UniProtKB/TrEMBL annotation, chain A:
This is Electron transfer flavoprotein subunit beta. It comes from Zhengella mangrovi. InterPro entries: ET-Flavoprotein_bsu_CS, ETF_a/b_N, ETF_b, ETF_beta_N, Rossmann-like_a/b/a_fold. Residues 23-211 form the Electron transfer flavoprotein alpha/beta-subunit N-terminal domain. Keywords: Electron transport, Transport.
UniProtKB/TrEMBL annotation, chain B:
Residues 163-271 form the Acyl-CoA oxidase/dehydrogenase middle domain. Residues 467-593 form the Acetyl-CoA dehydrogenase-like C-terminal domain. Pfam families: Acyl-CoA_dh_1, Acyl-CoA_dh_C, Acyl-CoA_dh_M, Acyl-CoA_dh_N. Keywords: FAD, Flavoprotein, Oxidoreductase. The lineage of its organism: Bacteria, Pseudomonadati, Pseudomonadota, Alphaproteobacteria, Hyphomicrobiales. This is 3-methylmercaptopropionyl-CoA dehydrogenase. It comes from the Bacteria. SUPFAM superfamilies: Acyl-CoA dehydrogenase C-terminal domain-like, Acyl-CoA dehydrogenase NM domain-like.
């Protein structure tokens, strides 16, 4: 079974994000970038499936500027077998990403696509679902456990009320949640090997996809700072404030 | 709670831009390690340091190691798992030859990653660090059979190593050592005696511990000419080369120390333990020096490492701690007080540490590159020149970087006021951990003597002359460069002081050796200042060139480099004049009092 793992290059989770002075977006110049943490979990899951003898080949895909190649190399160093870079300097939105991924799925014919439930830059949480819809495949989103057996995938999902376990038919889309696994560190020998693994370069036009943005960013602003709290004198006052000022009771 | 972020961007800048890493691509192991691979490796090493080792630093400090009644030793919680991750990542074998399972990557890369890991957890990194030293000695002086038997598993990290020199009555002067070796019919020896202060002497991280032990073969000459080096494995190897019978070596106790609590510092008792001679009989000191030179660079790196993490936290604290107002009026009018970073004296402290860290990083990576050339170049002259410089720089790296590392840790602690004295903030641990680096692997006073007494005169002063020439030519060739001349003028002044001090020794220390001894520590620091000044001049040149070529993304980074270079030249390098004056003062007032007067 072939597994496709899309990986996104995002601002590193440790970086304190700053909004650009003109409000057009966040500052990306000279900022540390790394693989979206949810995608790291996706890569790890694919590798575990391969180690368990369920998967046979792992293909890592990234869509974006040339430097996304480094993100693919990270996936290759962790244990993916080969990479595909779909190069574009546009800011690609989830729908365009899903369309490109559909094109790759049509070519590569994987039985499973594992991807992060969302990317930590714009937190859209859409790509996996859109891809499932475009392909007409089943989907198991927010996975905290995945078992694959006999053409079926059993996926435990992290939903608001707790955990929900579903069985879906393969081929399928799985999006990962934080508790699915703990990604490994790449070993030195594997970092060296990653350089020699095949990495194809494509363009969105190869899949007939127009990546022109459909959304317009009007303004980016920092959230308002947290305001100082107030001390209440009694329980009655607290209840009163919750009721009348906060309006939560 | 302290935090740590590995300075990957700075390491890359130093390697790529300041030192011109790509010029060395003809050396074996360098072609595989192109800059993109280097970056990937630094990033991965940084992750391991930040996420695995750093969280155990305070745990290790608080728990320490535990010796049990049967002589076994357990390391602090989490060390075993962290070591397993280090081992599985293949980090131990980074720069080791491929034939023994290593990656044969540049030593300079090993050094760069080592900085991150020692910053994150110095006590933890000593377990692999001692293993590196032991492997260096076996590789340089062991027989092929010994290399095959021990190196592959040590390079894999499955076995670790130690260095056993010190005895209760014998530290610096190894000629006094008493541990004895009795030859056996099968060619092995029976080793008996006691060794103290043995870092990583006993622990639960590896399947076997390979002790390298200095001992005296029965009937050997007195003094250092009668010392031999032996391999004494904790478990002797069976016919298949696997750990077999328990050897007669055990941990008698572990020391209660000021710092590095996470590392087990052991008293090791040898009771007719089976040992195997490395190299020739009575030539053990030479073999030991291979190990010590490696270890001295590692210890110098520890000085830098602690200075870096102490700086990062002090800088964060200075930005966050609000107290009082700026001399020039409120800078944070919306707050009750300004962050203390508005004060010039706080800046003085932070800039001093920063200028040392960045310059020191360049210095140690520059030296590590020399080590790569010395070991890997195909050109004999190039190898010899690099080896000369390495020999000269080793005591400076060890002595200066650890003296300054401790001083910087103390000054970073000072930024915290009273909180710096409270364990929770972490600064106390940095001070305590940094302190040992000035002492072990040859106390810094010994480093200074090694520099002045041994390294300066060696081969008619060939190494020091080459250093003077390189720095002098750099100053000369940039003298008329408007943007550079501010830096090179200051550097030239420092170089003149260093040359004057060297000349003073030539004229005044031959007839009166106390003059050399009296000025040695000041000379070592004078040398360190000029070396760091040279690094800052190279840094400024590289930053300026990139700014001129219009590099956009890195602009603030490069501009900060220029400012820090200026700060170093204006405020730190002038110390050379003071150091020179002390050297030239000679030994008279230092030696005049009778011993009873003290």
């Amino acid at each position: 079974m072939k597994v496709l793992v899309p990986v996104k290059r995002v601002v590193d989770y440790n970086v304190k994000i700053r909004v650009k002075a003109d409000g057009s977006g966040v500052e990306l110049a000279n900022v540390k970038m790394s693989m979206n943490p949810f995608d790291e979990i996706a890569v790890e899951e694919a590798i575990r499936l391969k180690e368990a003898g369920v998967a046979t080949e792992i293909v890592a895909v990234s869509i974006g500027e040339q430097k996304c190649q480094e993100t693919i190399r990270t996936a290759l160093a962790m244990g993916a077998d080969r990479g595909i870079l779909v190069k574009t300097d546009d800011a690609v939105e989830p729908l365009a990403v899903a369309k490109i991924l559909k094109g790759i799925v049509d070519e590569e014919k994987p039985e499973l696509v594992i991807l992060g439930k969302q990317a930590i830059d714009d937190d859209a949480n859409q790509t996996g679902q859109m891809l499932a819809a475009l392909l007409g495949w089943s989907q198991g989103t927010f996975a905290s456990e995945v078992k694959i057996d006999g053409g079926k995938a059993t996926v435990t999902r992290e939903v608001d009320g707790g955990l929900q376990t579903i069985e879906i038919t393969m081929p399928a889309i799985v999006t990962t949640d934080l508790r699915l696994n703990e990604p490994r560190y790449a070993s030195l020998p594997n970092i060296m090997k990653a350089k020699k693994k095949p990495l194809d370069e494509k363009a969105p036009s190869d899949y007939g996809v127009d990546t022109a943005p459909r959304l317009k960013v009007l303004k980016t602003a920092e959230p308002e700072g947290r305001k100082a709290g107030v001390k209440v004198g009694s329980v009655a006052e607290l209840v009163d404030k919750l009721k009348n000022e906060a309006g939560v009771l | 709670m302290p935090t740590y972020t590995a300075p990957v961007q700075d390491t890359l800048f130093v390697l790529r831009d300041v030192l011109g890493y790509e010029r060395f691509s003809n050396l074996p192991g360098f072609s595989d390690a192109s800059l993109d691979v280097i970056e990937a490796i630094l990033e991965e090493g940084a992750k391991l340091a930040e996420n695995v080792m750093f969280p155990l630093n305070q745990v290790g400090d608080q728990q320490g190691c535990t010796r049990h009644d049967d002589g076994s030793v357990t390391t602090p919680d989490g060390f075993k798992d962290a070591y397993a991750q280090y081992r599985e990542g293949g980090w131990m074998g980074l720069a080791l030859p491929e034939e023994f399972g290593g990656q044969n990557l540049p030593y300079v890369l090993h050094t760069a990653v080592g900085e991150y890991m020692s910053s994150a957890n110095m006590a933890f990194m000593m377990y692999p660090g001692l293993t590196q030293g032991a492997m260096a000695a076996i590789l340089a002086h062991g027989s092929d059979e010994q290399k095959q038997a021990y190196i592959p598993r040590m390079a894999e990290g499955v076995w670790t190593g130690t260095m056993n020199l010190t005895e209760p009555h014998c530290g610096t002067d190894l000629g006094l050592l008493r541990t004895k070796a009795v030859p056996q019919e099968d060619g092995s020896y029976r080793i008996s005696g006691q060794k103290i202060f043995i870092s990583a002497g006993e622990h639960d991280l590896s399947e076997n511990i390979i002790h390298l032990v200095l001992a005296r073969i029965e009937g050997a000459p007195e003094g250092v000419k009668g010392i031999s080096l032996f391999i004494v494995p904790k478990f002797t190897l069976d016919a298949d080369g696997n750990p077999g019978e328990r050897n007669g070596v055990s941990c008698g106790s572990i020391e209660e120390k000021m710092g590095i609590h996470g590392n087990a510092t052991c008293v090791m008792n040898y009771d007719e333990a089976t040992g195997y001679l490395i190299g020739e009989a009575h030539k053990g000191l030479k073999a030991m020096f291979t190990m010590m030179n490696e270890a001295r660079l590692g210890v110098g790196l520890q000085g830098l490492s602690i200075s870096e993490i102490a700086y990062q936290n002090a800088a964060d604290y200075a930005r966050e701690r609000i107290q009082g107002r700026a001399l020039t009026g409120p800078k944070a009018p919306d707050k009750k007080a300004d962050p203390i970073i508005v004060h010039p004296d706080v800046r003085r402290t932070l800039m001093t540490i920063r200028a040392f860290n960045e310059g020191g990083r360049a210095f140690i990576l520059w030296s590590a590159l020399k080590s790569d050339v010395a070991h890997r170049s195909g050109d004999e002259k190039e190898r010899q020149e690099a080896d000369d410089v390495m020999g000269l720089l080793t005591p400076i790296i060890k002595g200066v970087l650890t003296d300054k590392g401790f001083e910087n840790a103390v000054n970073a602690q000072q930024m915290y006021g009273g909180h710096g004295y409270i364990e929770e903030w972490g600064m106390s641990q940095y001070v305590r951990d940094a302190r040992i680096a000035m002492i072990y692997e040859g106390a810094n006073g010994i480093q200074a003597l090694d520099l002045v007494g041994r390294k300066l005169p060696s081969n008619g002063g060939r190494a020091v002359q080459a250093f003077f020439k390189e720095v002098g030519e750099f100053c000369e060739s940039h003298r008329d460069n408007e943007q550079m001349k501010g830096y090179t003028k200051a550097l030239k002044k420092g170089l003149n002081d260093l040359q004057a001090a060297t000349m003073w020794f030539v004229q005044n220390a031959m007839a009166k050796p106390d003059n050399a001894g009296a000025g040695s520590t000041d000379y070592m620091h004078l040398f360190g200042l000029v070396a760091l000044g040279y690094m800052w001049a190279l840094t400024a040149k590289s930053a300026q060139e990139q700014l001129d070529s219009g590099a956009s993304d890195a602009r603030p980074f490069l501009e900060n480099k220029l400012v820090t270079a200026t700060f170093f030249m204006e405020r730190l390098l002038p110390e050379t004049a003071l150091r020179l004056a002390r050297v030239q003062a000679g030994a008279d007032s230092m030696m005049a009092l009778s011993a009873e007067a003290f």
